[in-house]
Amino acid sequence: MAYKYFRWEILSLIGIKKIDEKGTPIPVAEIKKQFTASNHADFLPKEPLVDVNGKLQPFWDEMNAYLAEVKPQAPKEEVCFAIKKILEKYPELNSTEYKTEVEATICGLLNQYFSEKFTVADMQNIWH
After folding, report:
1. pLDDT at 125 > cutoff 60
2. CA 110 to chain centre
3. Average pLDDT of the residues in 91-98
4. Cα angle value 41/43/44 (rounded, 5°)
């Protein structure tokens, strides 16, 4: 019966103390400021960079897979040769009609995996 009425006094004898809840409440508006509003579209898969009638996506996927596996210290000539070989698999992308989109895709991927390692001259070697 004494425990029921004097439990905090008894617990304080062994070192357990009651914490008073006299802290300042945080307004809900302050909590909401910590979280940014999210848009449902932010979590959806992104569209490919440029889709040339569905022809660029398979090329982009293969390039991305190759560059993800190649070592960062690989020689530029080896990477350019591999890109050239991948590009040869897609003859419809070799036309001058798609050159701008393909170059943008290659440059974007090279900058993603090898920042500032490749130059415009390297891009020219891929096309020749």
Report:
1. yes
2. 15
3. 78
4. 65
Specify the residue for token string 């802290």: 23
Q: What is the dihedral of CA 101, 103, 106, 109, to 10 degrees?
A: -70
Amino acid at 92: E
For residue 46, what pLDDT band results from cuts at 50, 70 and 90? low
Q: Tokens 């991948």, residue?
A: 86
Assess contact for 73 and 117: CB atoms under 8 A.
no
The span from the first CA to the last CA of the chain, in angstroms, equals 94
* Side chain identity at residue 30, one-letter code: E
Token duo for residue 33: 């400021």
Distance CA 108, CA 122 (A): 14
pTM of the entire structure?
0.52
Residue 64 dihedral angles phi and psi, to the nearest 5°: -60, -40
pLDDT score, position 39? 66
